[in-house]
């Protein structure tokens, strides 16, 4: 049987389609202009922290459009151009002394540059050994660095091998290594050294200065530092400046606030140490979008540290896009409903990692908050709304007229 009012159903589908188009329309909260370019070429655009912090966590909502609203494809890149190489360097063994139950090596690190990794060159041994390390700048006053247990000490093969020991970062020029020989025979250490790691790449972005407060709590022997920003940022690294006259060593815990101001909570973000022998007290963090951090410093029975400054950093992030000097471009972001775009450029990642010309976001880095969609999209939305209102109103009027007519017919019957 043919449905009597099938055209009404068809009209309803049209209304739903138009509403679907309205709902699917992109709704960005922010936009930032791209400075004009001089050539028709691929350009690399560096994303500042104020932009990254207002995007979705994975930057899925980034879009580039020209002045006509046409979307421009791009490729997202992180840590572009960074690389590292290694070069082994020997330390000088000043002396080797055997005492009762121990062998003591006095080592000159020569330049005293901060270093965390020590490499032992030894002849093969299949035995456990306890080692302790101390540091000094004058070979008179010594400070404990770390005690370790190598288990097993076997390195395989017949020649001299390398054992890597990770120590807290130290800038002492001299090291003293004490090998415990009380339970076993001596091991044949051929040398001490380290690997210089040369890194080349772009610098991390420094975040805008944040307000922070320090509260020293005697009851549980901790110091709480709360850091607040005026917007969310993607923070990868913290650098804390400590002004102390005496040596110190403290464990640190870092938490980040996630969620709304009212219903959010702190989550674990990273752990680290603050020590007087570190060149810089830096803590690497897991990626998180947050506007507030909390540091807990465990003082034990030592007096609280004096924090003189805090800096936060974001890893550099770039987008590469084909831009034309005859057009004007705008970067849109801040739409939590968007999925990541799928462009052909993802198949050309190796090519697009080349050092293309730079294009900058607006020279003032102006970010327009709660910006509505551009004028063209606004007019399009108004068209959808107007059309839907007219169709819905017409449909309601027709259905009302139809019902009244049927009621009249039934009354006449």
Write the layout of secondary structure elements.
Blueprint: H1 6-24, E1 30-34, E2 41-46, H2 49-52, E3 63-66, E4 71-72, E5 75-78, E6 83-90, E7 92-99, E8 102-108, E9 115-122, E10 129-136, E11 143-150, E12 161-170, E13 174-180, E14 189-200, E15 205-206, E16 211-217, E17 222-234, E18 237-242, E19 249-258, E20 265-275, E21 281-284, E22 289-298, E23 307-314, E24 317-323, E25 329-333, H3 349-352, E26 358-359, H4 375-412
Parallel strand pairs: 2-26
Antiparallel strand pairs: 1-25, 2-24, 3-4, 3-25, 5-24, 6-14, 7-8, 8-13, 9-12, 9-14, 10-11, 10-13, 15-23, 16-17, 17-22, 18-21, 18-23, 19-20, 19-22
Characterise this structure.
The longest helix is centred in the C-terminal third of the chain and has 38 residues, at 375-412. The protein has 4 helices and 26 strands. Mean pLDDT is 79; it is low at 17-24, 81-85 and 369-377. It has a 5-stranded antiparallel sheet with strand order 7-8-13-10-11, with no helix packed on it. α1 (6-24) runs antiparallel to α4. The protein has 3 domains: 26-81 and 317-372, no CATH class; 84-200, Galactose-binding domain-like (Jelly Rolls), CATH 2.60.120.260; 205-314, Galactose-binding domain-like (Jelly Rolls, Sandwich), CATH 2.60.120. The chain has helices at residues 6-24, 49-52, 349-352, 375-412; strands at 30-34, 41-46, 63-66, 71-72, 75-78, 83-90, 92-99, 102-108, 115-122, 129-136, 143-150, 161-170, 174-180, 189-200, 205-206, 211-217, 222-234, 237-242, 249-258, 265-275, 281-284, 289-298, 307-314, 317-323, 329-333, 358-359. It has 413 residues and is an alpha+beta fold.
